[in-house]
Amino acid sequence: MADKITLEIARYSPERDDKPHYESYEVPVYKEWVVLDALNHIKDTVDGSLTYRWSCRMGICGSCGMMVNGEPKLTCATFLSSYARDGKKIRLEPLRYFPVVRDLVTELNDFLSKLKKVKPWLIRKDEPPLSQGEFLQTPGQVDRYKQFSMCINCTLCYAACPVVGLEPIFVGPAALALAQRYNLDSRDQGAQERTAMLAHPDGIWGCTFVGECTRVCPKHVDPAGAIQQYKLAAVVSWLKSFVLPRGQDK
Amino acid sequence: MPTRNLESTKAAPNYTPFHPRWYRPHVSVYWWLGEWHYLKFILRELSSVFVGVVVIEALMLIQALRDGPEAYAHFLQGMQNPLVLVLNIISFFFVVFHTITWFNLAPSAMPVRLRGKRVPDVLVAAPSYVAWIVVSAFVSWLILQ
Amino acid sequence: MAKQSNEAFFWMLFSAGGVVAALLIPVHLLLFGLAIPQGWVQAPSYEHLMSLLRIPLVRIYLFVFCALPLFHWAHRFRFTLYDGLKVKHLNEIIFVFCYGGALLGTVVAAYLLWNIS
Fold first, then answer.
1. Tens of pLDDT along B94-135?
2. Is C5 inside a domain boundary?
3. Closest-CA residue to A205 (of C11, C81, B1)
4. Domain for residue C29, yes or no?
5. Which letter does DSSP use for residue A100 in this model?
6. How close C89 comes to chain B (CA, Å)?
7. How much is the pTM?
8. β-sheet with A4-11: strand ranges across
9. A199 chain-C contacts, CB cut-off 8 A
10. C36 in any annotated domain
11. Domain spanning B28-90, CATH class
12. Shortest CA gap B48–chain C (Å)
């Protein structure tokens, strides 16, 4: 394995540039180094103006996502050695389909508003009295939605989904998986309310099951699966709306 | 790095005070050629066109049968035309591609739970393949007997 | 409360058509597009096929075989045009072309299969 590897990094400064350009940096290769270590090395010793997001460095905060050789990845979970072994360069770009604020940093307000749009909280039609105690769930009930609750909001799925790129108003994989997480939660009574809002062309019907979101998800949330399940549930709910025009329960 | 004051900021073309200029890359109409996964997706979607081709051929066959034995023989001869043969070979690969991708993806839309645990997708897909073979064998037997 | 869009109906047809197409299209193409014309198997006689066509259940089967996969094509092709060619602004024309085409094929199938002497 080579002892050095070249990183080609997209640089963009809104004060200076019209569009990004690439700058190359050479970093040492250590067996245990990930791409994030290389970025920190560059910022500490070569170019302090390099700007990127990171936090936990262990794949749980979701901050460090970027395009590594055209693939959305968490840089804290991507080892230098897998590229050095093949003698490849590493090209780093900000996550696709988001506006770029600077260098490798993307603008996330649109994503955050989409998350809020799906009402990601327990919606109750009735509030049991406090004296009744907490809601209880069996392990089976938790298992129904647990996978979809593992999302760390890293937005790799948005960078992978072509519909996100083509239709900016498309709510997107993570938000829809989050909606389905609440729909499947036995404590929630808001499925009808969410579906009335999301069963539209910019919600679940915008998805064409490309499946890239599931492929790149670092937490194996399977947002594509969540969306297809949601589509099936929406068909049932649509059919029910003819048979029971008013007052269907969840 | 030049010092920035209000005058120089206003003069710089790319920076508007209190409204940073974000770079918004344009998504090309050729986005699906850029990556193998995207291309595979588009080919999977285009398999529906070849499904339509088979339906049209079936309608032509039914019309030929209604018209009489000569029309039926003429239809079979038409299927032997080299261009039609090439179309049918290509269509065959695409419709089988549709079947395989359909059966492999359907389980994620309908998760099966046994005793509280999720059954792996490959086990949920297996009966579809069995059904495919059984139905195909039955249809073949009905037609060819 | 807002109502959900009627897109669910077209997706339902797409799904049903997808299952029918997955199960039945390959064998029909293999038989009548390849095996029989190429002589890999003995061609069924005209009388045999007509005797099959006269069975009402067979005609219903053939109607479903033609109609549902056409609507599967319509829905899938519509979205492929939206995303693949970025022509979503032409969505009215595309909608009519796709579902109208499928409807036309369905009507033709019904007409051909309604009455077999």
1. 999 999 999 999 999 999 988 878 899 999 999 999 999 999
2. no
3. C11
4. no
5. E
6. 14
7. 0.91
8. A21-28, A4-11, A90-93, A65-68, A71-74
9. 4-5, 7-8
10. no
11. mainly alpha
12. 5
